[in-house]
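User: Need the bound-state model for 3-phosphoglyceric acid:
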Amino acid sequence: MKKILIATQKPFAPAAINKIKEITDREGFELRLLEKYNSTEELKTAVADVDALIVRSDKVTAEVVEAAKELKIVVRAGAGYDNLDLAACSAKGVVAMNTPGQNSNAVAELAFGMMIFQARNKFNGTAGTELRGKKLGIHAYGNVGMYVAKIAKGFGMEVYAFDPFVSAEKIKADGITPVTSVEELYRTCQYVSLHIPANDQTKKSINATLLEQMPKGAVLVNTARKEVIDEESLAQLMEKRDDLAYISDIAPDIRSVFEEKFSNRCFFTPKKMGAQTAEANINAGVAAATQIIKYFKNGDETFRLNK
Ligand code: 3PG
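Assistant: Bound-state model below.
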């Protein structure tokens, strides 16, 4: 019987585990669970004899892949796969996949939760502002960006998007205004919502040079990755510009600097929770398990990330 391990420092909702177990039981796979583990050693021990691994933002490093002697497939139940060492997986013949789109709505909804919280002065009783009529820039028009755009239209926002990999026609067809450069997006929009992945091209790419072009009362919304922000340069810009706010689902490394200096103009969730809904956990978890089963049963490699 093939063994599938779900290893999640940030556990799925119980409803998602139940659904995954229903599927693995029915298909004749053994399901194991390692939740809230504290060390790589614990993860290495748990992966030692499993055939398949499901993770969230858990780090699947070369060391972990090396310890997983029987591993054939790892699935990141989610979109961003910067936590998977793809080269290490390829070197050991391990297939790596993600489950794009499955948790996107949850992330998009959280972006609005944070925007409203900030626009209403963190619910402190003073008069805030509304989202209606404001310009929202979507930086990367992928699965999450598209949901953000749809919801923003419901709020009556003017929505713009920049994505070099998506055609202007597609963006226009969704009723969104495409812009031709990152600079134009930041120059135009009071709110910018980030949906870029963290990779060699994007790390630290959101810096003061870009952000200082934003209009008065600018709010940067980050439900993507902290690594894409040049934190030092953002903090320096926020010193200069007392109208700029930064709200993020992924706390910066220099969180205390932001919170001490700009307490009214920043907000960070205690733990990344964009995808932390029962629905997103069920969608991503079930997709991951189903992809593993299909891979073993008929070699289906849809959503494979590595060569
Ligand atoms: C993703 O890349 O899918 C999201 O950032 C969610 O990550 P999480 O599974 O760690 O919550």
